[in-house]
Amino acid sequence: MRSLRKDADAEALWGEILCSGFATSTPSREGISYLQKHAKQGHLRSQYILARQYLSGELINKDFSQAKYWVDLAAKSGYVPAQQLLGEMYQQGKGVAVNPTEARYWFEQAQKNNISS
């Protein structure tokens, strides 16, 4: 079971590398399929990176509802970068209505979880 998890982590990382363009001369849309596969399987970093891709619209069509869906899953599972991003989304009104109370909640969650990590 542990080796299966390592394989999933490696594939998710490969998806992130392809999207960043680090391994190629330009970012590759091919990485999105890796991220989607592992996000659906509950890989928190994949959910977070996929949400960022939906927010930017660089390699995939900009879709705020999908960004919110994926970042919300990762944030509620305690993934600190996702909690920070969700706080920013509520603070800036990106894909959600501006909500200072929600923004503060997610920033506090991120800080609490970052300290306890």
From TrEMBL:
Name the domain of life. Answer: Bacteria
Against InterPro entries, the record matches this protein to: Sel1-like, Sel1_AlgK, TPR-like_helical_dom_sf
Q: Which Pfam families match?
A: Sel1
Can you name this protein? Sel1 repeat family protein
What does the record give as the organism's lineage? Bacteria, Pseudomonadati, Pseudomonadota, Betaproteobacteria, Burkholderiales
